[in-house]
Amino acid sequence: MANKLIVTAAPHITSADSTQKIMQRVCLALVPTLIASIIIFGINALILTVVTVAACVLFEYGYCKMVGREVPIGDFSAVVTGMLLAFNLPATLPWWMAVVGAFIAIVIVKQLFGGMGYNFANPAIVARIALAVGFASRMANYPKPVNGIDALASATPLAVADQVGSAGYLTLLLGNHGGVLGETCAITILIGGLYLIATKVISPMIPVTYLATVAVLSVCFGMDPIYQLLSGGLMLGAFFMATDYVTSPTTEKGKLIFGIGLGLITMMIRHFGTMNEGVSFAILLMNLLVPYIDVLTRQDKLGIAKAKKGGAAK
Amino acid sequence: MSKFLKRSAQGAGVPHEKRTSNLETVVMPLPSKIVLSMAQHIGAPAAPAVAKGDQVYVGTVVGKAGGFVSSDIHSGVSGIVDSITTITAPNGAVQTAVVIIPDGEQKVDPAIAPPEVTDLKSFQDAVRASGLVGLGGAGFPTAVKLAPKNLDEIDTLVINGAECEPFITSDNRCLIEDTHFILSGIKAVMKHLNIAKCVIGIEGNKPQAIAKMKDAIDIPGVEVKTLPCRYPQGAEKVLIENCTGREVPFPGLPSDVGVIVMNVTSVAFVGKYLETGMPLVTKRLTVDGDIVKDPKNVEVIIGTPIQELLDFCGGLTDEPGKVLYGGPMMGNCVADLSQPILKNNNAVLAFSKKWAHIPKETNCIHCGRCTNACPLGLSAKEIVQAYHDGNVELLKELNADLCMSCGTCSFVCPAKRPLAPSIALAKIMMKNGGKK
After folding, report:
1. For residues B196 and B401, what is the distance between their CA atoms, to the nearest angstrom?
2. Model confidence pLDDT, tens digit, residues A44-75
3. CB neighbour class for B413 (10 Å; exposed up to 12, middle 13-18, buried from 19)
4. Which of A172, B230, B408, B431 counts the highest number of beta carbons within 10 A?
5. What is the per-residue pLDDT for A61?
6. How far apart are CA A30 and CA A35, in angstroms?
């Protein structure tokens, strides 16, 4: 027959959403925070972001070419990783250290485990932790905002949280204090996060439960809850890092447990520990539990009785 | 909130594309021939009851039901049986078919008369004789559906007017044009099966149909329920849950929760048949798609070749890429245009090669859209993974066999993975005990 018809299995249409569009929306949601970081920390913030994004994209391209894997640059996921990594670095970090971070994120955490969708933990988080351990002093060298209104220099507000009033709530909201690039300005992170929720890229479950747990526990520990919510990497972590699809649970029930777990670990580290990376470690530890959470929090299926399901499960 | 945590079942916001919804049904003139497949229903195929050269009339039985779960096939034309041949169905099955050349006179079979219905038995017999099968798409013989084992426990009739598939508007036209037949059909079913309550479920994107139906209801116990426009509202179990709040057990049937579900077109046919006695020989179809010149709702004689139906709708404006029986979510691809219209078709859609383009599949990013959209609460990504691993135990634990192939998971997948077809393969693997 001259004109053959195409025969495939149903369905014959797919939604307009694609991995690429989702990642582009995440990038867009990060832009306000990028702008804020440039205003707060100067042009260094932009340079560092460009360096990490370029390094992430190049490492992804290079590795995929090397092992003969299809190059997925078009999906923008390396760009997201690059931006998030930069947001976790202080603006004063030498650029070559940032490149090392990009290598850890893309090659070691993502590609060595199989590439897109197969990483066991959030690449940017692991890279941040590796850098924080490897280059401890440079990573903790939090710069002063360039406009110099704020008095804090080499410590984040969280590190001096017991000095009450060292940074007011407004300062924390605007991010006009020391810290890594993308963590300081709570308001732009919130705008980006709400955009992601509005466009259904993320479900509000993880950020809401995470932040709520932190707030409740800070009251229990006798800490200032608003201070705890607005400082450190909590906002960025809750909206952008903990909601990474690959390393967070699938069902809403799973996300609820994941968010509470994140809040618990974060507050344990903040209350009992000495390190600044409470959020990073919380996310990394909870990432490792995701496969278990996923299996334990499957949805109820229509028409399948609870008792029977319990019996069938191993 | 707690229900949301147990099973999100968000469904999918599929495009509506219901541009034919205001087009009144037109009757297509006689085709040059009709090809009547003997397997237009679920169950045993019918056996040809005519031979080459026989004269048949409109309404003459040409295929005799091959068992209890089966259905008679009737001619929609008067004419001469040209041949008994075989055709290949979209699923690859080779079926017997009777080809009839119309003589143009459309003489009605003298045996056609309104059935005498006095009690349940005569009602069931009449429905059996009408050749009616589930017209929503499944093609399950209606007479069997109307004879549940636990008739005493049936208390609700649910009428499916959801029509959640994109493009298709034939049920919408049925609701608007055949309102009185729907109501007389509902009354007959309620009376003879002694059912007190009836819910007519219609998706909110059909305001005219909802208003017309609400207006027409003149007996107590019948109500119209406006359903949200989330695919798949028209899936039997989803519809029952949304109309009655009951969960059909698995494995089980709607009758297990006291419900019988009928499509609007099926119940309208029951109403019409009781008045006229004319068996199921025509069907209202939506003909649409990006390359159909004049999209229409057409009343067509069952057995009409698709090519002639498309010609009636002005032909195609471009080379066809895909032609579907039914909607784009669950419809089957037609392999060639000589294929006939079947009883349970509700649309023929023709699309260009560009439209038929299948986007490239990329890695799963575990976004969970498939899981949260699944109306039944299944986890498509886990099922597909278990299928690729050949893990039948896990497939059982995940209840892969509950899947009804509605295609929602594939539709919402941003990585464009063919999840629904893979789950269909997984179900086969479960049956075969691990062999792909």
Report:
1. 33
2. 999 999 999 999 999 999 999 999 988 876 78
3. buried
4. B408
5. 93
6. 9
- The C-alpha angle with vertex B110 and arms to B109 and B113, in degrees rounded to 5, equals 95
| A143-163 average pLDDT score | 54
Interchain proximity B366–A252, CB inside 8 Å: no
Q: Where are the domains of chain A?
A: 19-296
Residue A265 near residue A281, CB atoms below 8 Å: yes
B414 interfacial to chain A (CB closer than 8 Å): yes
Residue B401 near residue B378 (C-beta atoms within 8 A): no
- Chain B contact for A15 (CB, 8 A cutoff): yes
Q: Is A19 on the interface with B (CB under 8 A)?
A: yes
The DSSP call for residue B325 is E
| Beta pairing, strands B259-263 & B47-48 | unpaired
Q: Are B224 and B218 in contact (CB under 8 A)?
A: no
The conformational region for residue A148 under phi > 0 = left, psi -120 to 50 = alpha, else beta, is: left
What values do phi and psi take at B351, rounded to 5? -130, 155
Burial of B94 from C-beta contacts in 10 A (0-12 / 13-18 / 19+): exposed
Nearest-Cα residue of chain B relative to residue A297: B6
A293: buried, middle or exposed (CB in 10 Å: 19+, 13-18, 0-12)?
Answer: buried
B391-B397-B402 Cα angle (round to 5): 105
What's the sign of the alpha-carbon dihedral A77, A78, A79, A85? Answer: positive
CATH hierarchy code of domain A19-296:
1.10.3430
- Residues contacting A155, CB < 8 A, separation 6+: A142, A178
| Chain B touched by A21 (CB under 8 Å) | yes
Q: B279, B232, B330, B261: which is closest to B75 by C-alpha?
A: B279
Q: Is A147 on the interface with B (CB under 8 A)?
A: no
> Mutate which of B241, B410, B428, B430 to test chain A, going by most A C-beta atoms within 10 A?
B410
Tell me the pLDDT of chain A averaged across its residues: 87
Is the CB of B411 less than 8 angstroms away from the CB of A14? yes
Contact: A251, B367; criterion CB under 8 Å: no
Q: Chain B 174-233, CB below 8 Å of chain A: which residues? A: none
